Amino acid sequence: MAQLPSQFNRAFDLSTLKPPPPVASGQIIECNERIFVEQLIPLSKQKPVILVLWTPRSDDSIALVDALAALSQKPGANWQLATVNADSEAAIVEALRATGVPMTVALIGGQVAPLFEGLISPEQLNELIDKVVALAQKQGITGAAGAADDATEEPEIAAAYGALAVNDLNRAKSEFERLLTRKPGDSEAIQGLANIELLQRIAGHDGVAVMADAECDNHDVSIQRVAADFEFLAGDISGAFERLIDLIQITAGDERESVRLHVLSLFAMLESDNPELIKARSALARALF
Fold first, then answer.
1. How far apart are CA 203 and CA 67, in angstroms?
2. What is the DSSP letter of 101?
3. Which class in CATH covers the domain with range 205-289?
4. Strands, DSSP E only, in the chain?
């Protein structure tokens, strides 16, 4: 099997984001580049993932997705189906070196195994999936851990990550907020909500343009805040906190409080013993007091 293309890690420091739990059995993940990195790769270490590059303009594509969806919903299926719309996700198509659609690959333990191009019969699909599952089991990937997680996780958490799988940020945010209403202080909900809020803040912005604008105007609070979010996602955690804490020193009133809450939201995405978090907490205290 091939290693994952390195370009999938170019925009995000995955160590700062907690991998979501597996989605419910039978649910199809509609995949973009971020979901590929943050959800499918961790999930493939728990159970095999069958990924289909398809286009709604192709009858064969539609038929293949329908056939795989039917198989994935059978009782006892211990693999996950995911789809990529090749018309809108060119980066994934390029990274997987697809020469045509539909194209089907397997993800097992974070590695890519090309399977076939075009449409094959349901019987052939069944046989191929059985072989993929058997290969995964030989590597100790049985799907059992995911099933245990599904049995114990909070229903709002499962619903939130299900919404994330289809890129519905508003619904995911609502589910995390619902859990916090029921269980104030729940750490997973706090972290999940912080992740969603960050994604909403950068939505519609181009990272390169934002960083260039931030260099040109150190006092534009709005652009500096978005720049800090992009730095955080890129793994420059200290730079993100330094940028935001500098803003606290030049703002006042409601604007200053909004920046402070922004910093706390990023704090929630890190483990309590993270050295950058410890350093930033001290810097924030000095800036405030």
1. 34
2. S
3. mainly alpha
4. 2-3, 29-30, 49-54, 80-85, 103-108, 111-117
Cβ-proximal residues to 140 (8 Å cutoff; 6+ apart), any chain? none
Q: What is the mean pLDDT of the chain?
A: 83
Q: Kindly indicate whether the domain formed by 2-150 is annotated with CATH number 3.90.1140.10.
A: no
**Of 258, 248, 228, 253, residue with least CA distance to 289:** 248
Count of C-beta atoms within a 10 Å radius of residue 15: 11
Do 2-150 and 205-289 come out as alike in CATH topology? no
109 torsion bin: left (phi>0), alpha (psi -120 to 50), beta (else) = left
Long-range contacts (CB closer than 8 Å, 24 or more residues apart) made by 249-252? 249/287, 250/219, 251/221
The span from the CA of 276 to the CA of 181, in Å, is: 30
Closest CA to 170 of 183, 155, 156, 160: 160
Burial profile 253-274: b = 16 or more Cβ within 10 angstroms, e = fewer: eeebeebbebbebbbbbbeeee
Residues 19-65 pLDDT 10s: 444 455 568 999 888 788 778 888 888 899 999 999 999 999 999 99
Are the C-beta atoms of 252 and 230 separated by less than 8 Å? Answer: no
pTM over 0.85: no
* 211-268 confidence digits (pLDDT tens): 999 999 888 999 999 999 999 988 899 999 999 999 999 999 999 999 999 999 999 9
Do residues 192 and 153 make contact, with C-beta atoms less than 8 angstroms apart? Answer: no
Q: Where are the domains of the chain?
A: 2-150, 153-203, 205-289
Give Cβ neighbours of residue 110 (< 8 Å, ≥ 6 apart): 4, 41, 44, 45
CA distances from 149 to 133, 143, 264 (A): 19, 10, 28
Question: Which of 263, 274, 224 is closest to 17 using CA atoms?
Answer: 274
